[in-house]
């Protein structure tokens, strides 16, 4: 028989236990724990197996600690949206796979630091510039893989020279994202640390020499990146260590060693670099961990896989969200034609074709077309020489230069598509780049964010952007600029010569034989495609400037009543390379055909002709020219 007193006592104990447990659970959020000892106890109570310790970050006031986490994830805009505009990507899932055409065997362990692909751990100090450090680390690794050296990119120059700083006055220590860094890298490029050392506070741009310019960049994951483990692995094998994000709190601030894990659902607030993985490492939710490089110096994670680095359990702390990668770069010296000064903020307009026009200020060679895009999008690039105002706000483009280029963008990001045959550009001559997209939206320069300067105040409209629903009839895209760009280089190669009147028909310009003005000279590439035309000047001279390396054919368009005497084959074949790049003396000789007088017909000849049945009178006789 159970005594009533026992029941009361047991019930009281149970109630107290329940209340105590509830109170303990309410205090279990690590953000509410202050001492390192209590944090370590909390870690063990969760069943986690990593250690924490005091470091320079834990000694900061809580507000200063949080300010180190400067990554700003995408914001859902408030309604209503401007007409025909949308935020293209909520980035729940950007792309199912990376772009390699060759299937790769994914190892169970990978360590880019051990392979020499990762630069030393940096220290961002008390500034919220993690988003810049993750970007420079990404580019440094890309360079290390391709050039077998470990560069040191200037974070200070990137922050101080970004248009968000120079034009909008934005304090980059307050945070940012990968779209801001990519925009600067693709328009301007990156410089070396030695030119503008890091100070950890905004300053002035030093206009350092450009080391490299990024020309291809990809978004790998979106807001569900923590679950896309195989996608991220594949991207690292394809592209190298990647820029990624994580949710960091006061436990992360104190990380020392082991496999870090935190399964809270908060959005990422900190940018890092994923440099490897190990599928065999265990944690409370299974096995497998990412190897990350942080930017808080070597004191943080002092006993981690490397000082300043950490293991983080797959799927925890939202690590892997908004992962992205620099894919390739180009050498400095390019001219980047663009109207979207602030780049792409993932906004698009509901049209199928976009176009932009540019006017070079000097002779150049057009080498590539760049654009921003969402994933799984086919594109067709065409370049034109003439804009036609058809009235009623309608424009068409004609006089195509070169042939159209078709392709598919599998991943969202920034693409640079090289031209099969570079196109000469003349100073002052406008050209148009048109891209037909199969996806629903075309990229525009627009943003609406709570933490950025206003778009209406800072974006400068070029009035050189156009959109179309059918790819033929275009309309001004104002008040927006479209995210299509063009790359060009200076190349001193040229072909010049003279078109002369070959009076004695010997194919050689002799003394006294004048030049022929106003004749057209045609330049074709190795596929027999006309890429340029020019007209001889008053002295019969011509020049083709800004030609790239390659094989060309050169011919003259004959005028009626003339015969070409030089060259005998009718055209020249010209090879331009590093040593042969200033081709002169390519002359064309032409001779005007003489007119034979019409012979007088005697009565006898008329009778003979009539008798032969050839003519019935003088009226039917033709006037012939002879060579």
Question: Which secondary structure elements does this structure contain, and how are they paired or packed?
Answer:
Layout: H1 4-26, H2 36-45, E1 50-52, H3 62-67, E2 85-87, E3 109-111, H4 130-147, H5 155-161, H6 163-166, H7 178-187, E4 213-219, H8 229-239, E5 242-246, H9 250-253, E6 255-260, E7 270-283, E8 286-293, E9 309-313, E10 321-330, E11 335-337, E12 347-349, E13 353-358, E14 364-373, E15 377-391, E16 394-400, E17 405-409, E18 413-425, E19 431-437, E20 442-443, H10 455-458, E21 465-468, E22 475-476, E23 484-489, E24 493-501, E25 520-524, E26 530-535, E27 541-547, E28 550-556, E29 562-566, E30 572-576, E31 582-583, E32 588-592, H11 603-612
Parallel strand pairs: 6-9, 24-31, 24-32
Antiparallel strand pairs: 1-6, 2-12, 3-7, 4-10, 4-18, 5-7, 5-10, 7-8, 8-9, 11-23, 12-20, 13-19, 13-21, 14-18, 14-23, 15-16, 15-17, 15-19, 21-22, 24-27, 25-26, 25-28, 28-30, 29-32
Give a structural overview:
By secondary structure, the chain is α+β, with helices and mostly antiparallel strands. Strands 1, 3, 4, 5, 6, 7, 8, 9, 10, 11, 14, 18 and 23 form a 13-stranded mixed beta sheet that branches. Strands 13, 15, 16, 17, 19, 21 and 22 form a seven-stranded antiparallel beta sheet that branches. It starts with a helix and ends in a 15-residue tail after the last helix. 44% of the residues are buried. The N terminus and C terminus are likely disordered.
């Amino acid at each position: 028989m159970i005594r009533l007193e026992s029941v009361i006592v047991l019930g009281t104990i149970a109630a107290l236990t329940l209340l105590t447990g509830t109170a303990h659970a309410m205090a279990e959020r690590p953000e509410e724990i202050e001492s390192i000892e209590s944090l370590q106890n909390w870690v063990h109570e969760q069943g986690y197996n990593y250690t924490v310790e005091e470091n320079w970050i834990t000694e900061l006031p809580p507000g200063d600690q949080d300010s180190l986490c400067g990554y700003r994830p995408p914001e859902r805009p408030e309604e209503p949206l401007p007409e025909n505009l949308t935020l293209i990507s909520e980035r729940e899932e950007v792309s199912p796979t990376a772009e390699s055409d060759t299937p790769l065997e994914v190892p169970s362990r990978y360590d880019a630091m051990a392979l020499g692909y990762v630069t030393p751990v940096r220290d961002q100090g008390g500034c919220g510039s993690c988003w810049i450090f993750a970007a420079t680390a990404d580019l440094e690794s890309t360079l290390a893989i391709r050039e077998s050296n470990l560069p040191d990119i200037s974070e200070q120059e990137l922050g101080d020279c970004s248009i968000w700083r120079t034009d909008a006055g934005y304090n980059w220590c307050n945070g940012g994202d990968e779209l801001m860094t990519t925009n600067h890298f693709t328009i301007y490029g990156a410089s070396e640390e030695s030119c503008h050392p890091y100070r950890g506070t905004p300053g002035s741009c030093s206009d350092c020499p450009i080391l490299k310019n990024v020309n291809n960049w990809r978004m790998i994951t979106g807001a569900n990146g923590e679950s896309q483990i195989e996608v991220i692995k594949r991207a690292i094998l394809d592209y190298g260590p990647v820029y990624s994000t994580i949710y960091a709190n006061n436990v992360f601030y104190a990380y020392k060693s082991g496999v870090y894990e935190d399964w809270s659902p908060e959005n990422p607030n900190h940018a890092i670099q994923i440099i490897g993985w190990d599928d065999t490492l265990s944690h409370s939710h299974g096995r497998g961990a990412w190897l990350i490089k942080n930017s808080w110096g070597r004191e943080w994670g002092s006993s981690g896989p490397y000082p300043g680095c950490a293991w983080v359990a797959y799927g925890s702390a939202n690590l892997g969200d908004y992962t992205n990668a620099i894919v390739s770069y180009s050498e400095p010296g390019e001219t980047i034609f663009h109207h979207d000064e602030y780049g792409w903020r993932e906004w698009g307009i509901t049209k199928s074709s976009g176009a932009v026009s540019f006017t070079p200020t000097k002779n150049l060679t057009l080498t590539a077309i760049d654009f921003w895009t969402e994933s799984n999008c086919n594109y067709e690039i065409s370049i034109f020489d003439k804009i036609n105002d058809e009235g009623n706000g309608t424009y068409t483009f004609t006089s195509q230069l070169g042939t159209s280029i078709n392709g598919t963008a599998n991943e969202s990001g920034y693409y640079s598509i090289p031209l099969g045959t570079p196109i000469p550009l003349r100073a002052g001559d406008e050209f148009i780049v048109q891209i037909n997209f199969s996806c629903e939206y075309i990229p525009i320069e627009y943003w609406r964010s709570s933490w950025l300067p206003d778009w209406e105040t800072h974006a400068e409209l070029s009035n050189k952007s156009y959109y179309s629903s059918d790819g033929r009839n275009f309309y001004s895209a104002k008040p927006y600029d479209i995210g299509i760009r063009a790359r060009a280089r200076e190349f001193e190669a040229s072909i010049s010569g003279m078109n002369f009147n070959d009076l004695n028909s010997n194919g050689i310009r002799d003394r006294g034989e004048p030049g022929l003005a106003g004749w057209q000279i045609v330049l074709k590439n190795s596929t027999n495609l006309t890429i340029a035309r020019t007209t001889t000047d008053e002295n019969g001279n011509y020049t083709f400037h800004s030609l790239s390396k390659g094989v060309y054919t050169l011919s003259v368009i004959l005028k009626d009543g003339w015969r070409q005497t030089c060259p005998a084959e009718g055209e020249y074949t010209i090879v331009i390379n590093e040593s042969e790049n200033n081709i002169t003396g390519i002359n064309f000789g032409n001779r005007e055909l003489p007119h034979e007088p019409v012979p007088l017909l005697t009565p006898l000849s008329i009778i003979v002709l009539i008798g032969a049945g050839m003519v019935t009178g003088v009226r039917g006789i033709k006037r012939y020219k002879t060579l």
